[in-house]
Automatic annotation (TrEMBL):
It comes from the Bacteria. InterPro entries: Rbsml_bL25/Gln-tRNA_synth_N (IPR020056), Ribosomal_bL25/Gln-tRNA_synth (IPR011035), Ribosomal_bL25_b-dom (IPR020057), Ribosomal_bL25_C (IPR037121), Ribosomal_bL25_long (IPR001021), Ribosomal_L25_dom (IPR029751), Ribosomal_uL5_bac-type (IPR020930). This is Large ribosomal subunit protein bL25. Belongs to the bacterial ribosomal protein bL25 family. CTC subfamily. The lineage of its organism: Bacteria, Bacillati, Bacillota, Bacilli, Bacillales. CDD domains: Ribosomal_L25_TL5_CTC. One of its GO terms (molecular function) is structural constituent of ribosome. GO terms for cellular component: cytosolic large ribosomal subunit. This is one of the proteins that binds to the 5S RNA in the ribosome where it forms part of the central protuberance. Gene3D superfamilies: Ribosomal protein L25, beta domain, Ribosomal Protein L25, Chain P. Keywords: Ribonucleoprotein, Ribosomal protein, RNA-binding, rRNA-binding. The keyword Ribonucleoprotein applies.
Amino acid sequence: MAIVLEAKERADKKRSTLHRIRSQGGIPAILYGKKVENKMIFVSTAELEKALREGGRTSLLTLKVGGEEHSVLLRELQRDPLRGHPLHADFQAVDMSTEVDIDVEVRLVGEAPGVKDGGVLQQNLHELSIRVLPANIPPVIEVDISGLQVGDTVTVGDVKTDGKFEINHEPSEVIATILPPQQEEEINSGEQQEAGQPDAAEGRETTPEE
């Protein structure tokens, strides 16, 4: 059952309006889709965060706005790079009979014998792009590593889909591997830490000219 989220329309995207919405505990957002008219809306920050905790980032939501209900996916959630609080959300209305492309988290499960023998687990892919009907979107894709020895790998081709979705990756792409201890040491010794700078404040509707 889809999680229900209440939304309200907003008249404009002026900076003062966006500031007022955020100061009152809301998140400015956009609703769009092939069969719906684009709408500028806002939702409760607390309710959206609750929905994400309960269903995950890829969960199907029922968005109520202006007396209408839409089945939607949260396509983008922009957060303040320093404080982490939400700045803006994009909701895509979907047709339940039409497949969508979406990125889903990969979760490794099980204990690899190779790790117990001193090997080091390296995960190459943390998300998989899949094509799936909205009702069949999995919260995570679990990949069993309980049979991996040192030097073994698990690839995209090893993922069980149960016929519910297609994976938009080459079957040969490596998801995870068990590295020999000495190889891990070589990798670590060759890594260089680069100083990073936080991105500019996120939110397409936060610029002064708006």
